[in-house]
Please model this.
Amino acid sequence: MTNDSVHNKALHRTGIPLRFIPAGDGHVGHKEKYMAKIADATFKGKTGSYSFEVYPADTSFNAVGAVCIFTKREVGPDGKGTHTFLYIGETDTLKDRIPNHEKWPCVTRNGVNCICVHRDDNDKSRLAKEIDLRNGNDTPCNDQ
Model:
């Protein structure tokens, strides 16, 4: 399990967001709000550490490349989140990959409630980070 480095309840806009939730009745002229980032977290692989942004599992993402970790997050009495890794992967577009991911049945059975995102537009860099994270962490939904 890994802890959040910072618990952030404030609305946060990043280059990812992410999910638009219609305010009011959804008609033209009504403003939309962004889905808030839950927290920032640093996760360790076998050799490196990587900064992630933590989002609710039902977040819709923009088309950005990233390493992503599906987690079960629990918050302790101190307000800090602890993550159990369920699946580690990488993609060149979160927008297309996340909603259609073949591991949804497995991560759902294991209690997924967050998707942690480390943005990276470089294919080789993403793959190296995914491999490092998988080598340093056991997950029930990766084909080991």
The chain is about 15% helix and 35% strand. Helices lie at 94-97, 104-109, 123-136. The chain has one domain: 2-136. The first helix runs from residue 94 to 97.
